[in-house]
Structure prediction request, 325 residues.
Amino acid sequence: MEGKEPMSAIPVTVLTGYLGAGKTTLLNRILSEPHGKRFAVIVNEFGEIGIDNDLVVGADQEVFEMNNGCICCTVRGDLIRIIGGLLKRKDAFDGILIETTGLADPAPVAQTFFVDPDVSKRTRMDGIVTVADARHLAQRLDDSHEAQEQIAFADVILLNKIDLVDEAGIVVLEHRIRSMNPFARIRRTERCSVALDEVIGLGAFDLDRVLAMEPGFLGEDDHEHDQSVTSVSLQEDRALDPAAFDQWFRTLIQVQGVDLLRYKGILSFKGSDRRTVVQGVHMLADSGNLSVWPAGLPRTSRFVLIGRNLDGGALRAGFAACVAP
Ligand SMILES: Nc1nc2c(ncn2[C@@H]2O[C@H](COP(=O)(O)OP(=O)(O)OP(=O)(O)O)[C@@H](O)[C@H]2O)c(=O)[nH]1
Prediction:
C-alpha cells in the first residue's frame, strides 16, 4: 500500500441491510468503480447453498464465502479465521468489505473487530453502511428486531429503491429513521447509486457513541434471532421447463408472497445456454440472464427461499415438477 506502513490498520466496512434491500447491488457498485483500490470481500449468506458469490462482479478482488450460518452468531470464528488469513498475506489490501446476511445484527459483527486481540490490532472499523428497501422498510421495522438494529447501528443509511415510493412516503421513512438513529447520514438512492466516498473511508465508526447507545456492546452476545424465519434450498441437476417454472413461481409468490422475505435462484432452463437469475422480495420479483454456463461444469439449478411458514416438502415437490420432460 502506497504511503502506508505495512502494519497500519486496514479499514473494514460492514455492509448490512435486511434481505433484498440492495447490499449486493452496493457491493458491485463499489467494486466496479475505477478507484484503483484492492478490497478483500467477505460475503455471508443465510441458506445452505451460496448464490451471492455468482452475483458479485468478477474484478480484481477475492471473495470469501461463508455459508454455514449467520455471521453474527455461529460463524464468528470463521470470520476471525478468514481475517487472520488475510492479515498474514504479503499482498496488501486497501480495505475489507463484509456483506452480512440480511438477517444479521451488525453489532456482533462490528464487535469482532474490537474484542479479538489480533484482529483489533491490525484492523479498524471504518463504518457500518446499511441499505434499506424504501418499499418494505416500514413493514420490516414493525416485524424484525434485526432490521431495527441495522438502522440503529448504521453510520450511513442508503434509503434505496426510492423509485418504488413517492416523495411523501420517503419523508415519513426519513423521520422514522431519524427517530431511531439521530447520527447516521441518510442518502436517498436508486440502485444504491452513491459516490464511493459516501460509503468508504468514512472514519465514522465511533465506539464511544456505540457504547453510549448499547453499553453491553463489548460484552458477551445475548441476542437471539427471529426463529420464525427459515430457509429452504432447492437444487436440481436436470434442466427446467421455462413455462412450468413460470407458472409454479407466479402462483407461489401470489399465494405466499407475504411470507417470502427473500428468494434467489440461478437456474438452468432447457433450450438456454445462459444462467438465468430469478430473485425478489415478497411479490416483487426480477429475472435476467447471467453469463453462459461454464463448459464442463454441471448445470445445476439452485434456488433459495427465505421466509416464514415455508413448507419445505411442498416447495421441493413444486420445484421438482418444473423439470423439463
Ligand atoms: N426497483 C429497484 N430495485 C432495486 C434497487 N436496488 C436493487 N434493486 C433490486 O432488488 C433486488 C435485491 O437486490 P440485492 O442487491 O441482491 O439485495 P441484497 O440486499 O444483496 O439481498 P440479500 O443478499 O439476499 O439479502 C435485486 O433484484 C435488485 O436488482 C432499486 O433502487 N430499485
The chain is about 30% helix and 25% strand. Residues 228 and 308 are 6 Å apart (CA to CA). The pocket of guanosine-5'-triphosphate is lined by residues 17, 19-25, 52, 102, 160-161, 163-164, 190-192, 262, 264, 279, 286 (CB under 6 Å). Residues 242-256 form the longest helix (15 residues).
